[in-house]
Here is the input.
Amino acid sequence: MSLALELLAVSAGQPAPLGHWQGQPVFSGIRKSPLRGDTVDVDTTNIAGDGQADLTVHGGADKAVYAYPADHWPWWKAEAGFDAAPASFGENLTLRGADEHAIRIGDQFAWGQVILEVSQPRAPCFKFAMFTGREDLPARMTVSTRTGWYFRVLQPGSAPLKGTLARLHTRENQPSVREAFIAVYHPRVMSDVAEKVLAAPALSGAWREGLHKRLAAALNR
Here is the structure.
């Protein structure tokens, strides 16, 4: 199915102090700014100029590039009084044209010379609350499933800062990003959704592990 996502902004930032959480200093790369120029280099773990403080939950090969759809901005404004703009969610790519319902695990996109593959949803965390100054926003992201998604980089190279990401490959039998998120975060793990998500070859190892833990916990209730 043909799909081109409009690229509104490409953003990057280095880890910096974010504040204190439970009495401990917190560093994060969530605070990003749109890049200027024509192109940016992208390798297998990062966009040039970008960095992460805690590589156990952000960054790495399966979470090299984080994308968020601007299609959600009106919802955030209406439901949460949150005025979103590029990089408001700590994303690298601010896109328009599809959301978590339409994007599937394993979807591949061409971005200039770069080829990206959808690997998992974003897991909301306390750093998003610290960054925005809104303790309610991670929960709102979770309940609404408006999470955005991570890409792995299948082919590194140079990518434009404007233009589109063209979908090269999708399979309708693969789980959507929303289904992958629900499988881990829904209070009751639905076996059919869980099986569909676990069967996705492109699902990241971290998300697969999280789903196995959820299923084990459900069995032990």
